[in-house]
C-alpha cells in the first residue's frame, strides 16, 4: 500500500465486498443468550465461535437523545439496570480492572444513545434485556429507553495484499503518558508516522481481544488528521483527533479503537466499503 502523506489525500476506491447483516427498526428485545461472564472472570476472552475470521457485531440504537458528555452517565445507568453482575458491562472484577478489549461499548450515534457489542458481547447483551426494566436516569433527566434500531452483522475480517479500504475515526484518543511527551516534541512528519504506528497497534489489539488472528501484515495509511480540543478525562487532558485512513483490513462498523473505546471514543466508520 502506497501511503498518502498529504493530509486530505483521496483514498483509492475499494473493491465491492459486502458484509452480511440484518437491520431492524423499532425492534423488540434482541434474542437473549444464557451465557454470561461471572464477576471473577478477570481477563477471560472467549475465542470467536464463528468460522475463522468471522466476527459477530450488534449495534442497538435507542430513541433517547444523548450528549457526548453524558456517555459515562449512560453507561452508569445501563449498569444499574443489570439484574446480575456481568464483567463485560463495566470491566471491573473483584481483583481490579479488566484490561482486555471492551466487548460492550457505550456510544453516541446520530446524537442518540447506543450500545455496540462485539464477539462474546453480542451474547452477553441478553443479561440487560432480561431485566424488563428500561427506566433510567441520565444526569438530571429520567428516560424510558426505547429501541429505535437493531443492526446485527457477521463481518468477514479480511486482510489482503492490495486491498484498500477507507475509514473515518472520530474522537480518537491515541496517546498515553509514555508517548505524549515524544509526540509534543515531534515535527509534523514524525507525528504522522507515530499516529500510524499507534493506529496499527490499536487495530491489532482489538483483533486480539476478540480472538481474531490475521496472517497477513496489516497496513495503515493516515490520509487526514483534524485535531480536536483536548478531552478532559478523569482530571487529565487527552490529545484528541478525527482521522481518515486507508487499510488493507476490513473492520466492523462502529467498532471502538484507542483509549476509552468503551465510552464513545475512537468510533470507526467505513467509507464506501460495501
Description:
- This protein is of the alpha+beta class.
- It folds into two domains: about 20-155, no CATH class; about 160-270, Alpha-Beta Plaits (2-Layer Sandwich).
- It is about 20% helix and about 35% strand.
- It has helices at about 70-80, 85-90, 120-125, 125-130, 175-185, 190-210; strands at about 20-25, 55-65, 90-95, 95, 105-110, 110-120, 135-140, 140-145, 145-155, 165-170, 220-235, 235-245, 265-270.
- The radius of gyration is 19 Å and the shape is globular.
- Residues about 5-20 and about 25-50 have low confidence and may be disordered.
Write the layout of secondary structure elements.
Blueprint: E1 20-25, E2 54-65, H1 71-81, H2 87-90, E3 92-93, E4 96-97, E5 104-109, E6 112-118, H3 120-124, H4 126-129, E7 135-138, E8 141-144, E9 147-156, E10 165-172, H5 177-185, H6 188-209, E11 220-233, E12 236-247, E13 267-270
Antiparallel strand pairs: 1-9, 2-6, 2-9, 3-4, 5-6, 7-8, 10-12, 10-13, 11-12
Structural class: alpha+beta
Low-confidence stretches: 4-19, 27-51
Q: Tell me the radius of gyration.
A: 19 Å
Count of all domains:
2
Number of helices: 6
Record the strand order, biggest sheet. Answer: 1-9-2-6-5
Order of helices and strands: EEHHEEEEHHEEEEHHEEE
Main pleated-sheet profile = 5 strands, antiparallel
Shape: globular
Helix content: 10-25%
Ends apart, CA distance between termini? 20 Å
Oligomeric status: single chain
Number of strands: 13
Task: Return the average pLDDT rounded to an integer.
Answer: 81
Report the β-strand fraction as a percent range.
Answer: 25-35%
